[in-house]
Amino acid sequence: MGLQRFERRLERLVEGTFAKAFRSGLQPVEIARRMVRELDTNRTIGVRGTVAPNDVTVYLAPEDYDQFESFTDSLTRELEDAAREHAHDEGYHFLGPVHVDLVVDDHLRRGELDVHAVIKEGPQGRVGSLVLPDGRRIPLSEEPAVIGRLSDCTVPISDPQVSRRHAEIRADIEGYVVHDLGSLNGTTVNGEPVGERLLADGDVIGVGPAKIRFEAS
Length: 217
Known about the structure:
It is built from 5 helices and 16 strands. By secondary structure, the protein is α+β, with helices and mostly antiparallel strands. It has a 6-stranded antiparallel beta sheet, with no helix packed on it. Strands 9-8-10-11-14 form a 5-stranded mixed beta sheet, with no helix packed on it. A 3-stranded mixed beta sheet has the order 4-3-5. α1 (2-13) packs antiparallel against α5. The longest helix has 19 residues, at 72-90. The two termini are 17 Å apart. The mean pLDDT is 86.
């Protein structure tokens, strides 16, 4: 599931200068498979269910690291998404933001890798992000995240159906809550109009024409 989606996204990534790197040596999907095995192996049972590691370090041989170096940022983002999707598929949750780091290990030979995955708690145990329609991810923090037409909003949406300051995502003791800020056209969660709503993983916030997914990971 998550790995299949990861492989499909990799097909889109492998274009132009990236293509050469994938013809030989360590394949990114091998890294993803090893990573999700580490999530499974190091998961633990918490008060609210199964907790998976969210801080992952991938150790690569110098030759393998070199072939990925030109698109490390893109690859780590894809690996982080694969971790989130695997956790969603398996019913795991995280205690902090998902982070994947690729580092060189001079003791490894080409084709070898090592993965170290640990659980790291986020600020006050809360973690979440907003996934925009274009795929960008906005991490949430203790500071309110404003969605609106103004350019200085956390999530600016340039559309006449969106109010200047339309809605706000605020940290709450139980997680994150969306608040409509008296907008003209209202705010929805999963298609239902809301004034205020505690967000659950996968909820879709509607602001004008934009659909923004909340992820508790």
